[in-house]
Design goal:
Elements lengths: L1 H26 L9 E5 L5 H10 L6 H10 L9 E5 L5 H9 L8 E4 L6 H10 L5 H7 L3 H4 L23 E4 L6 H15 L2 H10 L3 H14 L3 H16 L7 H8 L35 H8 L8 E4 L6 E4 L2 H11 L2
Antiparallel strand pairs: 1-2, 3-4, 5-6
Helix pairs in contact: 2-3, 5-6, 10-11, 10-13, 11-13
Length: about 350
């Protein structure tokens, strides 16, 4: 009988300890950082998806604590769609209060960054929309050290590079006259980090390539191949060329250097002196030549094995023509005027 009472007492103590431990997790903070992150909740998005998003952004230490709290308070149907400014040093009750009491940011305009746009093009677009100045934006993209501590994918980025390639193309809500250039750049980097899910990060490690190599390749594929279904084939061709010590000979890199888009580049065009020139230099360009979307990133990471050695892309029609031999490649050039 004595052992039974000891067992009951032990169970009671453990229950109390478990309660306070769980309570500490719920009312505690994920971290001490006060850096504001913008979390967008879509109409009809469920608690599980929201909790996962908060965990991946570092706003909560684990999705379970958010889910337990919101269900215990019967607030799962009270989260309003919108964009919220949240910080890791907020408690879960504070986060839920923000999401259920109409405290979403009031965004009066949206900007859409097109896949493949380089930083210059983004800067020009934002200036035209009256959001931020072009030069102000370009200067902020050089501030790699400001953002490096917040994003693991920037840890190995060379110091003589800017954020080209990592400003994820998407639609972003902004408040005209209030959204700063730093907030917008942070949004784009955070979006990149969220799109690069854990399985992709693990597959990059297994590939033998760095994140930066994948993004440099993806930026070329994005601009070389319009059709998604053909991108993995071109990725296979490009990686084969690199393995075989052949130059990539990408016209997209010439366009990036010169700022001029042509259906066909002359021999003189391909002689321009630049570390981005993949006709004169073997391997990948010095840095990304634009900001690729998820399709191009996945193509770079998951190339298709292929016997094709050459390809031509028609930027006017979006068609891509493949060849296994040089003779076949020349015939394609003559036939399609490329």
């Amino acid at each position: 009988m004595k052992k039974f009472y000891v067992f009951i007492l032990l169970l009671f103590v453990l229950s109390i300890a478990g309660y306070f431990w769980a309570r500490g997790k719920i009312v505690g903070r994920a971290g001490g950082s006060s850096v504001v992150q913008e979390i967008s909740i879509k109409e009809g998005e469920g608690v599980n998806a929201i909790a996962t998003k908060l965990q991946e952004s570092g706003i909560v230490s684990h999705r379970l604590w958010f889910e337990l709290y919101i269900w215990s308070k019967d607030k799962e149907n009270k989260i309003a769609a919108g964009t919220y400014e949240l910080r890791p040093n907020m408690t879960i009750p504070e986060i839920v209060d923000t999401m259920t009491t109409g405290k979403a940011k009031k965004e009066d305009e949206f900007v859409t960054i097109i896949e493949g746009w380089n930083n210059r093009e983004i800067g020009e677009y934002l200036a035209e929309k009256g959001i931020v100045g072009k030069e102000e934006f370009l200067e902020e993209t050089k501030a790699v050290e400001k953002y490096r501590p917040h994003f693991s994918f920037l840890q190995d980025l060379p110091k003589n590079r800017d954020l080209e390639g990592y400003l994820f193309p998407d639609t972003y809500g902004v408040i005209k006259g209030k959204t700063t250039v730093a907030q917008l750049v942070y949004k784009m980097l955070l979006n990149f980090d969220q799109k690069m899910v854990d399985s992709m990060k693990e597959d990059i490690k297994k590939s033998g390539h760095s994140v930066d190599e994948i993004i440099r390749m993806a930026s070329v594929i994005e601009l070389e191949v319009p059709q998604e279904k053909e991108r993995k084939i071109v990725s296979g061709i490009f990686w084969n060329r690199i393995e075989g010590k052949m130059p990539l000979e990408s016209c997209a890199t010439i366009s990036y250097i010169t700022g001029v888009k042509k259906r066909q580049y002359s021999f003189d065009d391909t002689r321009v002196d630049s570390p981005y020139n993949t006709y004169l230099n073997r391997g990948l360009p010095f840095g990304p030549i634009g900001n690729p979307g998820l399709s191009a990133i996945k193509a770079a990471l998951y190339p298709q094995e292929t016997d094709f050695v050459y390809f031509l892309s028609d930027i006017e029609t979006g068609e891509t023509f493949f060849a296994k031999t040089l003779d076949e490649h020349v015939r394609n050039k003559n036939q399609h005027g490329l």
